[in-house]
Amino acid sequence: MWTKDEAVAATGGTCDMDWSARGVSIDTRTIRPGDLFVALTAERDGHDFVAQALEKGAAAALVSRIPEGVAEDAPLLVVKDVQIALEALGRASRARTGAKVVAVTGSVGKTSTKEMLRDVLKGQGRCHAAEASYNNHWGVPLTLARMPRSTDYAVIEIGMNHPGEIAPLAKLARPHVVIVTTVAPAHLAAFDSLEGIAREKASIAEGLEPRGTAILNGDVATSQILVDASEAVGAKVKTFGEHASCHHRVTDIRICDHVTVAEGRAWRQPLLYKVGAPGRHFAVNAMAVLAAAHALGLDRATALGDLGRWQPPAGRGLREVIGLDNVDTAQTLELIDDAYNANPTSMEAALEVLAAGSVKHGLGRVARGRRIAYLGDMGELGDAEAELHAAIAELPFMARLDTVHCVGPLMRNLYEALPPERRGRWTETSAEMAEGLRRDLDAGDVVLVKGSNYMRLGRLVDAIRKLGQAAVAIED
After folding, report:
1. Which residue, 225, 157, 234, is CA-closest to 197?
2. Which residues are noted in the entry as ATP-binding (predicted)?
């Protein structure tokens, strides 16, 4: 992937030892022999782990100084600033490939849409995308720096927490197609308004290659901001959504237990398609994926087939069957793992999926299947955070739920707004909530776990899995 001479030319650094790297890593826990280790400084200084990386077989290390405990003749590529050098590697990697690049941003659905794109694109060529949600100032250049030269298609996820983050990353990625999944009240603590969030999301179009295509959510109130910004940079604009004015329009959505079936119009033709996971948001974002496939000139039938087999990754709506009895295989519950992130829009979408879940009666000690939610705090919502949490109680899907358990100080607002018959337990932390899981749940239940990542509701997911047998992912 990188020779010493190529890396030196890209970064302007110095290195006396010859080496070649098969990959790029920033984490000694997952580093593989032959990787170039990048000593980033974030929560911890990566220079403290250079010796360990070399011991594990790293081909070389990208550093801004010679770390303690590292031999003088170690293969070190020394630069002024490691972050800037990583960006330079990403820029050089992007320049040397002929890959068609799709960049994705949005308040909700970035990662699941990236994964849909991965499945669709890899069916028609060599596709490169980050294995995790690497969408920030180091994640985007790292994804680019890891891109093989022979890549046909690449998917780059771009996120933000503050104004001014998206455009520089988009210019680094130089996409041929950009997608804005939606604009929603997320990160309001850093923005004055929803319009401010829309302008930031719209800035992804600033990185478009000439004659590039912008695929934009046409349902949100701020759609015109997205359209105007994209047209201002000369992009070909295509909208998607459920509104009649959208170029790629979803006209009917049927949420089933394990799939979503949708009808719509695209390419001025009627369209019937399936997504291998339940969720209105999945069906709508799938239309954006199909629009991207069209913009890239892909085979439509192959794209539709691959889309129907797609399933969300762990923490993003993955559904699993949890066996509760080693002998009686009918004693199961169903888990919806959506614990990675949350804001009001994604929370509403997840609750709609739970409300549509099919429970099973006549099993377990309760003998009545229930729809149960474990909901954690939603972060970065600004001054309206208390009201936004309490407002979940008024969502129409809540009427079909049996019990809602709440985790965190902000979710106390929802707990107090819930009617007594739907109110479960409230705890400050996920660890406290996990202690009562065995009493809460029974065979036949459908269970949703949803919250912002910092609430660590993944602990609840793990605890639910440990209630019985090894989890088995549902396949359609």
Report:
1. 225
2. 106-112
Residue 93 annotated as binding? no
What distance in Å separates the CA atoms of residue 16 and residue 347, rounded to the nearest whole number? 53
User: Token match 């490691």: residue?
Assistant: 82
Same domain, 55 and 107: no
Q: What pLDDT, in 10s, does the model give residues 428-437?
A: 999 999 999 9
Q: Tokens for 301?
A: 């039938």
Q: Is 110 annotated as a binding residue?
A: yes
- The parent domain of residue 390 ranges over 318-473
Q: Is residue 410 part of a domain?
A: yes
- The enclosing domain of 304 has a CATH number of 3.40.1190.10
Is 150 annotated in a binding site? The answer is: no
Q: Is 106 annotated as a binding residue?
A: yes
pTM for the structure as a whole: 0.85
Q: Which residues touch 396 (CB under 8 Å, ≥6 apart)?
A: none
**Does one domain contain both 152 and 294?**
yes
Which CATH number covers residue 405?
3.90.190.20
pLDDT at 471: 39
20 annotated ligand-binding residue: no
Same domain? For 127 and 26 the reply is no
Output the pLDDT for position 13: 96
Alpha carbon distance 169, 87 (integer Å):
9
Q: What is the pLDDT of residue 407?
A: 97
